[in-house]
Amino acid sequence: MKKWVKFTHKIFNSIFTPGKGMFYRKSLVLILLITSIPGLIMGFLMYWFAGGRIEEELVQLHKNQITRRAESLGVQFDHSELTMSHLAFEPLLDYRLLETDFNRKFDITRDITKTLIIMEGSMTLTTKLEFYMGGTTPIQFSPEYNLLPPDSEEWKQSETLLKQGPPVYWTLLPSRLGIREKPDLALVHKMPGGTMAPYGILIARTNRERLQDLLKTLTPYEDGEAFLMQEDGTLLASTGTGDSSALLQELRSEVLHHPVGTPSFIWNGDHNKYSVSFGKFERIGTTWIYVSAAPIDAITRPVVFLSKLVMQISCAGMLLAAALAWFASRRIYSPMARLMGLLSYGKQTSSVLMQDEFQVIEEQWQHLTRQSTALQSKLETQLPQVRQGFLYQLVQGYLFSYAEEELRERMRQYGWRVEECRYQVLFIRVLGMTQASMQGRFSLGDEGLVSFAEANIAQEMTEERFGQCQVINFHDLTVGVLLELDAQEFDGKNSLYDLGEALIQMLNGILKLQATVIVGGTCTDVKHIPWVFEEARLALNYRKWDTDNQILDVELLRGREKTPGSQYPFAVEREIIQAMRTGKLEETELQIKAFLEAMTQGGATDLDVRQGGMNLLGTLEREIMQSGLNPNELLSPINRFEQLSELRESEQILQWFVKQIIRPFMEEMENRSDYKIKKIVDQAIRFIEEHYMRDISLDECAEYCGTNAFLLSRSFKQVAGKNFIDYLTDLRMERARALLRDSEQKIFDIAEQVGYQHSYFNRLFKKFEGVTPTQYRERVRRT
């Protein structure tokens, strides 16, 4: 304190010391006013702004974060519902299970258990996946196979779920951990999917701890609360340990009685002030409400502390400003010398001091002007690349947090016209690189070069017709074009179609490649440009696979009628799996080619073909796992589904399957000790499937496979799970049931087609099915 008093006294004496002029005193007082008073005012303003406006901004930012995290939570539930829907239409879980003896056909039991385990692992929110099948003998897979006593609580609960409710719905089920535990949130799907008379149900129990962790992301503060409930107030899940807490009950009542249309509000409860955000989830057959409450003081506590700290620093800065003003006033008599020292970079030579100061300042100003002009020229040279980089960031969503006016200002700086104009998007993709590489015009590594040429062609032709435009090269044979159009001068889509035709002809002529042009939508706001680009990119999925050059209009695709796509070739898929099992690479390659030809028929779109390829990949990976191999260890460490989705040509897809899936699997199987045995059994199974309609024997089959009957019999039982005769009989009965169900042939003819005499066939069929063939046909047709 004594030092500050002494320092103040020194400043006072300096102001009124004799020998100092009035200009010195006035300058010192003026500098004190300029440096001290604004600092004090700024401190108060910053305190007011931090305590008020920033507090509101932080609360709003918290609300926006809650909304985005709630959307992420909704995506988790969407994934569970979609996975359950896929499993409901699994061919393995159809009506034939009612007629299956699970104790005999343990391979079917094993497949169902494996399927449930795999699907349970893929559903992140699910802790237990159960499959219940009613009937005279209730059966439950959980996921292991077990029989349910008819009077047990699990049987009663499962029958109630089967008979009540819609085909798919969410519900609360008693916990399996005990009566005192909270009920489990579960998704119930009746089996099979899409039928009026289900025979069973799938139950996916939600992992309570994982759901609580997701709900905790909605309120990242220790004193907050987050929970899910139905529209009627039924609590589904919460972050707290007790669902009957006073805070939760009051908050739930407040949300239920809150006016519609205001998803967030400030609530005074539990002696605290809370920021409450809530919204709705449209789930299957019901509506859920998520609620997040966070204490206001927890959100704004850092800001209030910072604002007080700024106020204290401002006061200290005022004292420091007084000291600096006093120090500056002592040198205010030599301003020109200081300015000369700055312009000459502190090296004031005698020649410089002899010159006129203003002449030196003028020379230095001209020098800086020339430097500024040179920098401006460099900026104009780099402007196209800067514009393209800005547009690429905008399209990729990196500038999503920017306001509309901020984006417009940046576009003005880069030379765009943003007033009274609208933006039109074009998307261009070239195809045929595989064929071009086979012809020697390009190699498979020239995609970047082709994309560069494609972008240049699009730039020249678009500027020739529309003037200024911006082209984005995505370096994957795809180019985006952004046009600035004046609504009064633009003559509609015809000029865009003409441009598309011209671009296709030019790309066909110069690059010798086919092209697809997407005429995207328009927008007037800069923030909407990424959505228009994304919509145009997604429109590429509707490209006709078997058509070379195409022009698609996004607006026409929005209102298109749904047309049936190509039928999935299940028969060819089975041939692929059989050929892969027997190690026949060339036959497998031919079958995959036939599969792609079947998928591309009937006007199939790009999306249809790629979806069919995804299904085939999933089937092949499942076959690899059933062979005892791990696909992630056997195959390349890549995202195979993502890599497959990027292929756009049938030949590319064929070569990818052979290189990435089939060949590694066959090479690995060749190195396994039991592969030859499995290969012999696969050959025997194929022989049975091709000749089951005539009288075949184990010796004949062994001779065909190049082995003896004893080794074949033992190997067949080991690999197929049943002996030769049982497998042949089951196959014949399966084909007989199909003929009785789907054809009008006589019983005598059907018996001959499956390799039996008429009388023996009737006895054997009744032994397996419990009814005669005629009674079976009548029963099936009645149902």
Automatic annotation (TrEMBL):
Task: State the superkingdom.
Answer: Bacteria
Domain HTH araC/xylS-type spans what residues?
682-779
Q: Please name the Gene3D superfamilies in this protein's record.
A: Homeodomain-like, PAS domain
Organism, scientific name = Paenibacillus alginolyticus
Record carries keyword Protein biosynthesis = no
Q: Kindly give the Pfam families that the UniProt entry links to this protein.
A: GGDEF_2, HTH_18
| SUPFAM superfamilies, A to Z | Homeodomain-like
Q: What is this protein called?
A: Helix-turn-helix domain-containing protein
List keywords of the entry alphabetically.
DNA-binding, Membrane, Transcription, Transcription regulation, Transmembrane, Transmembrane helix
Q: Does the keyword DNA-binding apply?
A: yes
> Which CDD domains has this protein been placed in?
PDC2_HK_sensor (cd18774)
So where does this one cross the membrane? 28-50
Recorded hits in InterPro entries, A to Z, give: CdaR_GGDEF (IPR041522), Homeodomain-like_sf (IPR009057), HTH_AraC (IPR018060), HTH_AraC-typ_CS (IPR018062)
